[in-house]
Amino acid sequence: xxxxxxxxxxxxxxxxxxxxxxxxxxxxxxxxxxxxxxxxxxxxxxxxxxxxxxxxxxxxxxxxxxxxxxxxxxxxxxxxxxxxxxxxxxxxxxxxxxxxxxxxxxxxxxxxxxxxxxxxxxxxxxxxxxxxxxxxxxxxxxxxxxxxxxxxxxxxxxxxxxxxxxxxxxxxxxxxxxxxxxxxxxxxxxxxxxxxxxxxxxxxxxxxxxxxxxxxxxxxxxxxxxxxxxxxxxxxxxxxxxxxxxxxxxxxxxxxxxxxxxxxxxxxxxxxxxxxxxxxxxxxxxxxxxxxxxxx
Length: 296
What we know:
Elements: H1 8-14, E1 31-34, E2 37-40, H2 41-49, E3 53-65, E4 78-91, E5 99-106, E6 121-128, E7 137-139, E8 145-147, H3 150-164, E9 172-182, E10 189-197, E11 203-209, E12 216-220, H4 237-243, H5 260-277
Helix pairs in contact: 2-3
């Protein structure tokens, strides 16, 4: 028998959708298909990493919330209370009840009609409401209900597995020192870029140039750069951490101890790395948490 949700008043008091910051950079690959459209990997990673609970569910009913209980609804939107039946739990320590409830803000169409969500299969990126019975969820962002698709489901599951692995890459917070050592031949040299991370774990990038060859670069997640180090594969957490966090230019402080010539070489190698990574491709507004800090 389905668990009965707690009173709507409690959910509204504790679980209004979380506001997000301004729009980030332009869209780009890698993408995953969602309802005939494309959603960048970075958008999915933002939501997964912010969500202690990821539920595959089918919407059972929606109820429009009006009056004082709808305070704070964005202009041009309506607030709904959604009940959904759980199909599968992708992420959620301790589990959740088979029926869930959450608040969702939606935009009516040009005729003022609300979207028909009943029976729609969705992925819900959320956290459990403190003080509730476990069935009440709070979306981690206003866009954290997504129409289900096989590609979105597979991407969310893959990111969840990577995020929980013992060797998951840390969140990048910036670039520390950069070093460049010129080689004995013209056009030869090596640059090392040491990154700063949220938990202090080491991450470094090395770029090796040899005359007549395309530059080679690699990422190391330890103090030692070994021969097995390689560039990150697209649509992986390491790629996402780098592509979505590295600044557009190498900070001057990173090369402050280098000669002008070596600093210029380090800047050129940094630009090469950014070009090789490609743009982050995030299209959604992302708050600080969903920009890369995993809940667990």
